[in-house]
């Protein structure tokens, strides 16, 4: 699979996992707060600050104000958190100055156009609720085919067949290699660990030939770290400046301190995911006393030969390795003559032998 280019970031292969701080609409329409959240995301070590753009009269039908979600009334949240495309463009520019990548989720095809034409985004993220909105994905697929902009697709609350159906749209439009699938469980908060299914990360990568990530709605950072160990190339987590400040995603968000711990945990997991089996520098110090050598179990006089009777395996491991007392290697040792008198409990060296 090819690496995805997203702004200055590279996703996939041996590149570091891209960590997304999901700000969403937690700024509640306050541009100053939105900018503080961008700064907090950067300070935490996140690579991406992600927002949402909502056009309720386009993306919703009927009395959407009466609908409820985990953050309260949809109508009230949409009204309080609304930002214009021009404001999103300002936030994108603020992200660039802060040294963090901007990302935004559209919830209707019209919002896709606004983000692409006015805001000038470098890529797109779709929510799980859009997984079967094929007209929107068709539009994204065409933009991606034309521009190479990546699309990160969340896959919560849907079937494997629905994921495949959406993937087929991108394949038809020639942009199926510009995607990453985000494993997600749409529970707010996610408290049933049996519902997480991190095994989908390698399954998605093998089944669809795209990089996979994990969008986390749990209340801790352990699962995100485990996702990286399972091969996630992107991790997304909600960020809040502080609980109880009027944000709508507190139930699934981490404070800056907690988010920083998540980033540190992810980076430690990445460092631990090596494949090379060698003796490490610090291991050598332990190996020197923990491994076994060939040791004399009695006094051996000059000119006598080494036998199984006058030697034994014992620590430390700084002499002839004890494997030379086994028949697999013993031809190289047994019967050799010692060149000087050796005391009992002497750690035998090759230079002790003729």
TrEMBL record:
Q: List residues of the AFP-like domain.
A: 293-354
Q: Which Gene3D superfamilies match?
A: Aldolase class I, Antifreeze-like/N-acetylneuraminic acid synthase C-terminal domain
What Pfam families does this protein's entry cite?
NeuB (PF03102), SAF (PF08666)
One MF term in the entry's GO annotations: N-acylneuraminate-9-phosphate synthase activity
Q: Which SUPFAM superfamilies is this protein grouped with?
A: AFP III-like domain (SSF51269), Aldolase (SSF51569)
Query: At the top level of its lineage, which domain of life is listed?
Result: Bacteria
User: From its record, what is one biological process in GO terms?
Assistant: carbohydrate biosynthetic process
Name of the protein in its database record: AFP-like domain-containing protein
Annotated organism of origin: Candidatus Tagabacteria bacterium RIFCSPLOWO2_01_FULL_42_9
